[in-house]
Amino acid sequence: MGEGPAKQYREVGGRPMLLWSVTAALACPAIDRVVVVVPAQDEDYVRGLLPEQQRIRLAHGGAMRTDSVRSGLTALADLDPAAVLIHDAARPGLTPEVILELLAALEGADAAAPALTLTDAVKELGEDGRLRTVPRDNLRRIQTPQAFRTETLIRAFEQAAEAAVDDLALVEAALGPDRARIALTPGRAELMKITHAEDLAIAERLLSPPPFRIGEGFDVHAFGEGDFVTLCGVAIPHSRGLKGHSDADAGWHALTDAILGAAALGDIGDHFPPSDPTWKGASSLIFLTHAVKLVQKMGMAVVNADITLMCERPKIAPHREAMRIATAEALGAPLSCVSVKATTTEKLGFLGREEGIAASAAVLLGPAPI
């Protein structure tokens, strides 16, 4: 994990990794107690992280995993529980549903664990340096928590002669691989084990709620002198132009405001004041790409955009596909995610009198691709 605090104390989604699992266990109605096994020197620090909850106990860990599990079992001895689950603090994606699935599976088994099938090709690297293909159909990736009948687990630890890769292995050794009844429940990508520093970013994406945000924008420009109008980045020949400090692209102005609004970053005037001569006659592509870059810094991207242009003339339909293409390129979004529509006001109001053009836009922001 590189330098820094122990990985179980590092934050995922704004809270320490350890707290994710403790919170999930406490939220499960089938859990009576949660024992957090920690290094003795970390006890005070961990107590400060955990909620004040009578269902939580602390125990000191040992040099090996088996020593730590024994310590945790001792801390539960007075309760004489029927079942015990053992979970890695470095797997923050625990949920109450995972626990309930394991306990249900345990009713007909000695132990239970979540498991994932292997989707990648598996190769064994021999001592001779050669790769050999390993059939993967019957291979499983075992996650935690692992659930046990308490008497089975205690027996396994009493007979344990050496450390094992996990607690299931001790049960297999104690009962015999042919006699141990181990049930497998569906694994979860969210239950991944944090091992390397780059795993934290993946866990953030898996565990954090999708930060989808909706924004809307609206813009109006009056007709003035000129022989073309610019709408959604496309110059359209017309008997008049549009008045505006920049290029008066009502479509992209509305879209820019929609993006800024979804990100709670103000409006286009906050970022490009009309009083600033720098933006006189400027292309609205500058404004739009600025808004896109701001949301990218937030780890977000435009999922889709819908623009409606309102005017009697010029006719929008002949230019609509060019507008979609220009807008998709500016957003860095697939063309299929950009919509441009047009409507009139049936000769009503200032639009019906052909005094100007209005535009509205709606956008959805979502997590940027990893």
Key attributes of the depicted protein:
370 residues; alpha+beta; 60s Ribosomal Protein L30, Chain: A; 2 domains; 5-stranded mixed beta sheet; 26% strand; elongated
What does this structure look like?
This protein is an alpha+beta fold. It has two domains: 7-116 and 143-207, Spore Coat Polysaccharide Biosynthesis Protein SpsA, Chain A, CATH 3.90.550.10; 213-367, 2-C-methyl-D-erythritol 2,4-cyclodiphosphate synthase (60s Ribosomal Protein L30, Chain: A). The protein has twelve helices and 18 strands. It has helices at 17-26, 43-49, 65-76, 96-106, 150-159, 167-175, 199-207, 250-262, 268-271, 284-297, 320-331, 349-352, and strands spanning 11-12, 15-16, 34-38, 56-60, 83-86, 111-117, 122-125, 131-134, 140-142, 146-149, 182-186, 213-224, 228-231, 234-237, 241-242, 300-310, 338-343, 356-367. Strands 5, 6, 9, 10 and 11 form a five-stranded mixed sheet that branches. Strands 15-12-18-16-17 form a five-stranded mixed sheet. Strand 7 (122-125) and strand 8 form a beta hairpin. Helix 8 (250-262) runs parallel beside helix 10.
Note the topology.
Elements: E1 11-12, E2 15-16, H1 17-26, E3 34-38, H2 43-49, E4 56-60, H3 65-76, E5 83-86, H4 96-106, E6 111-117, E7 122-125, E8 131-134, E9 140-142, E10 146-149, H5 150-159, H6 167-175, E11 182-186, H7 199-207, E12 213-224, E13 228-231, E14 234-237, E15 241-242, H8 250-262, H9 268-271, H10 284-297, E16 300-310, H11 320-331, E17 338-343, H12 349-352, E18 356-367
Parallel strand pairs: 3-4, 6-11, 16-17
Antiparallel strand pairs: 1-2, 5-10, 6-9, 6-10, 7-8, 12-15, 12-18, 13-14, 16-18
